[in-house]
Amino acid sequence: MLKFDILKREGLARVGVIHTPHGDIKTPAFVGAATRGTVKALTFSEMNELGSQAVLANTYHLFLAPGSGLIREGGGLAEFTNWQKPTFTDSGGFQIFSLPNVKITEEGARFKSHIDGRQFLMTPELSMQTQWEIGADIHMAFDQLAKSESFEDMRRAMEQTHRWLVRCVDEHEKLEKEYLEKGLPEQYLFAVVQGGDFLDLRQKSAEFEAGLNVDGYGIGGVFTAKGMDEMLKTVCPILPEERPRHLLGMGQEPVDLFVGAEFGCDTFDCVGPTRMARNGSLYTLDGRVNIKNARFKHDFRPLMEECDCELCRNYSRAYLHHLFKVDEITAKVLASIHNERFVVSVVEKIRDGLFSGDFADYKKEFLARYYA
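RE: above sequence
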């Protein structure tokens, strides 16, 4: 069982430490999105310098290329990528069910590769086998994305997710025994709570999953902070307190991080910060700015005085504006460095605030300035 020490509680929020074979994660923590085994535009050395504690890769993408067998041959995700800190993999379910013409049966999901059109059948068992071969410390169970936001579609997807989860647990336990007998590091399984915006479905999902032999929980299907507080206040008190909770795909907007941490989540991941950075959208304490705008052409100030990242320490807004205008790769690199550092730093301060008792003041001051 994954070891998770809770050091302090404040309501549903908690400060803790997740212990993995590749090191500890001080929580709450933002987990960088390394979808294909890399964070776009950044090296893992840079991610380390930015203070990132863990990264999350995508099973669907790594299953297609380079293949989980090759990653296993290369020593697992940490050795293959030279990221020697904790790693997560999501199941790839979101990506698979976002593809056109996916065929869903009790057995699994049949889909065509977006790379070469080859057909595959992803089952709960294959998802577990693939994730064990990839070798991340923490896996997400294979779950179904609802076809729409209607109650019936959400209910059907949730119930299918639960049936597949039982199979994921069985396969995980079988693989765990096999790998540990070979002297390989332990790996851990998170169930994924579903139910969309329907609190009664969320409650049912949490109650079902709380009774299974899993190491923690992912909370999926949330895309904005609207209503997230009520959903988390419904779900988190049901889930066993001693197991960590990961909020899947949340963290593009800073308010997501505050709400997630305040109402009981320990880790978060999102592709948003680096995706926005590559398009010239950058975080500042006074809100997000589009550095491509003409007003930055003669602005020789740092992007953000209070930031300690490479961009803010060494370059001006005018220089970054120029790099984007002439379409230099360096623009995307520097912008990604800043946005990733900004989000990591915000979550570090959330953790400090929860530990010291100053969280409410920090939240109020930050959000009032950012969303002014």
